[in-house]
Each structure stands twice: as C-alpha cells, then as structure tokens.
Amino acid sequence: xxxxxxxxxxxxxxxxxxxxxxxxxxxPTELTxxxxxxxxxxxxxxxxxxxxxxxxTGDGEPRTCDGTNNSAHPSPGPTPTASSVxxxxxxxxxxxxxxxxxxxxxxxxxxxxxxxTFAEGGKFWGILxxxxxxxxxxxxxxxxxxxxxxxxxxxxxxxxxLWLAAASDPATAPQKPLPTAHVEVGQPLALEVxxxxxxxxxxxxxxxxxxxxxxxxxxxxxxxxxxxxxGAGTAVTTAVDGxxxxxxxxxxxxxxxxxxxxxxxxxxxxxxxxxxxxxxxxGPLPTDAAVRVPARYQxxxxxxxxxxxxxxxxxxxxxxxxxxxxxxxxxxxxxxxPGKGVASLKLVVPGPGALVLSGPQVxxxxxxxxxxxxxxxxxxxxxxxxxxxxxxxxxxxxxxxAFTPDGGVTATARRTVVLRMATAG
Length: 425
Description:
five-stranded mixed beta sheet; Immunoglobulin-like; about 425 residues; mainly beta; 3 helices; Ferric Hydroxamate Uptake Protein, Chain A, domain 1
C-alpha cells in the first residue's frame, strides 16, 4: 500500500511539474511597447515578449520580473518592465533602476539616455497600460496579448497624453488606435488628436487637443530614436476640435506624431501608406512597425536550436517560438465599372486566412484565402447609398479591409473609393 501511494505521489508530482513547466515556457506574447523620453521617442512598435529575469545597470544580480513578483499572480507571464527591457536591448540601450525587496520590484530611474530628475519639482518615469497608470510596479503587473505598454518621462506633473488617429478610425481615446492609415497622394488625410489623463482609477477625461503640432517623424538610423519635426513644411496644427488634415506629395510610407512641448506627452505614431494616384501598394511595412522578435527568443547563431548552456539562464528551454503569421495587406488599384457604379479592389495577402471588406455604405464581403496571392473583392453600395450614387452620379465610400491569417493577429486597412455612374452621351 505504501509503495502504491509513493508511486501515485510520484506520478502526481511529475504531472504537476510538467504542468508548471508548460506554464513557465508559454510562448511569448505580442505587445505594443512605447517609451516616450524627454525629447524623443526611444522605442515604439509591436514585439514578442514574456516575463523573465532582468538586471538593471549597477545591480549586482538579475531579478525575477514575470508577474509572480510579490505574489501578484499565481503563474508567470509578460510584464511591462520585462517587455520594455527587451525593447531597449533591441536598440542597444540599457536601463537604470533601484530594487525594492519589500515590493519585490524595480523602481525605474532611467530608460536609455533619459534619467529622472529632481529639478523643477521632479520629473519621473511612469507606466501606463492601455492608457491607465498601473497601481503596481512593472514586474508585478500582468500583461495580456495586444496590450499597449507605455513608459512616459515626466508622467506625474499633470501633462495630458496625446492620442493620434485617422478620423475614420473607430477607436476613441484612450483605446489603442489603428497603427496605419491609407490615403492617395495629393489627397488630404483627416486626423483626430485628443488629450487625456491616464490617472489610476479615474476617468480618462478625454478632450480635443487644440493647437497641437502634427509633424513628420525622423528616425535615427543608429539608435532608432524618433523625433517629431514640428518645424517641417508638412507639419500642421490642430483646430479647436482637435482636427487636422495633412497631404503628402510623394507616395510610399510616411509617419507622423502629435507633439506640444507644454502640457502634453507625445502621441503614438501613425504610419501612413500614401498610395499612387488611382491606388496601389506601398510595399512592406517599415521594419520597426512590424512585429519584432528579441534575440532572447531567437535560435542561437549556427541554428540547431542550441542547448541550455547556449542560452541565458531564464530563457525558455525547448524550441524557440516561431514568428507569428504575417498579417500584411497590400492594396492594389481599384477598377471601377462606371455603368454599374461598383468597384473591385485587388488585395494581396501573405497566406491562408479570412479576408473581410466592410463599411457603413457598402455590402459586407468575406472570403477565405487558401494561400498567399492576389484576391479581388467587390465594393458594392448598400441600397440607400446606391440611390445617392444614381442621384449624384458619384459616391465616395470608405471601406475597411480586415485580414486574419490562420493562427495570427488581425490586421486592418482603410481605403476610400469614389464610385461613379456612367453619364449619358
């Protein structure tokens, strides 16, 4: 009997250890990380990350940073601090922090070149997840897939956070806006800029951000740091209602951010695909706008997956995670049948998945893409919109294209198409 109990206990323990190992070695999670420094954006974009040990400059030992800190959560997972450390390492930067054993967490003093200062009342780093200041430190907070992690310099002086989106974006502050927008060259892109307070446990207090500059973003090729060119010829200023519009003279990818030195924290970046006249592709997303994979989650040089001794002690054992399926959508030219007042959009997708076209004035269309390739999706007005098209001879419609790759994350793009009816004679 004792032997049977011992065997049963050993089997239970072995199963428990396997379950714990499965939890500890969960696949890295996609998060958006943004670090807004004193004068520049130090990092912005989606990455894969998970909770792991981190070590600040000057600290004598690595520290656990996986959400189990201070018994905040029963199992490990991605955290704001660990993901931001991953982000900084990808651009060759370190971080400075003080470890507080009582909280089992780091107090962040520096990201990259920007350290907190006690001058002028104190300017300290603060952390927000999905637009709200966290009630605990960045190693105790547990992130979920799709969360936006934002570290902001001078976060506690009452400055409002700026939020930038295309006017057609259905999101509202402080929700994460769509990271991309589409417009034809020479056509205005309507924008919306809002400001909000990310106070813990309080309403966001969203207000239109008037008198704020929206300007092109210059990226330092050496560090990846981003600077808003507020004095550039293409920079615009928001109206009283926070609206603005910008027109691009050249096709291709352009990027913009909103910034105002006094009273505001820099906005998120908007990557704009400026299509040629008549529509067309801008090519792949800029490298730093696509999901980036930190070196710790990639196989060692030479391939073969490596061994435990090849990896940092806290790196997940087992095979490295595969990159998520690409969700890039390339928009081709729209062909219009002026007799019927309908259009066909050519869309290029990278693999199998679900493709959906929708809009307030058009009939919803969906199809399954069995492989990578070019697919044609019709843009057909709803009955009421079609009556307007017949009456006026033309109709401008905005459509949303969503592509969800098998096992991947949905990407969306927007496109405005002018439908026309043939005129007599």
